[in-house]
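Record copied across here:
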Amino acid sequence: MRRTLNARHDRFALTQPFRISRGVKTVADVVTVTIGEGDAVGRGEGVPYARYGESIDSALAQVEAARDLIERGGGRRELLAELPAGAARNAIDCALWDLEARRSGVSVAATIGAPEPARLASALTIVIDAPDAMARAAAAVARAPLLKVKVNADDPAAQIRAVRDAAPEAALIVDPNESWDQPLVEAMQPVLEAARVALLEQPIPADADDWLQGFEPVVPICADEAVHVAADLERVARRYQVVNVKLDKSGGLTAALELADAARAAALGLMTGCMVSSSLSIAPALHIARMSDFVDLDGPVWLKQDYPGGVRDEWGLLVPPEKGFWGTV
């Protein structure tokens, strides 16, 4: 039975600006892929990211390049060879997983030999602002078990202290998004320790991290922009203690599972992250989150309108989508 592949650009307005060190976004632009076969339709979502040279147009072009393979019945393994890691491959790969579940009646969790997704702690993000504004934002969600603090190089110590004072019990992930340099990373170590920060995520540019080899941080350092697929681990494992697995970087759940398994085998900690996205991006990522030490899947929290039946946040506890939303029947 011949398949049909369709792709479109969807846009989700945000409830407020999402500000990090490299810019601000007020909408989430995504590529949505559907693959139909008979009465079954699988869905997937990818979020092109300019930091990785991606755009909506480039992602749609990559989806189109894979059309013949997919419509001829090509599978996830063939897709890995057809397209590079990134948002386009992620959208197609996740649509294939969903399609397989709907056609077979076997859930994605059962296929990979894992439990069905369950409620878990997921970070709520405090975006960059004046320290007093960040403190107010943190106070509003202080009961959440985990907060992610976006910072820049201007006055990160004040930003971190403001959040810690406002949310004294929450675990903190600090994320400079590559905006620090070596002297600042070194100077911030006492601040991170005093604020009881649990994780420092990608503080420096991914192409300037050689000096991390041999550096002994007071809190673990997580590779984000520095790691996309399992092949990156040989370099990353000598410089970082944790890796952030994002399906949009890895190019789908298939490659993300490979990265997560390889990271565990290398004795690295795991984090599951996401772009600002809908629940259609988050549902597949829950299959990585179940094995992760840190989870940051609050993308849909920022949307004015998410898909019905998607994930829900309950004060930093992420509730999985309703049955039948993605990867289940």
Remarks:
- Residues 232 and 322 are 35 Å apart (CA to CA).
- The two ends are 20 Å apart (CA to CA).
- The chain has a mean pLDDT of 98.
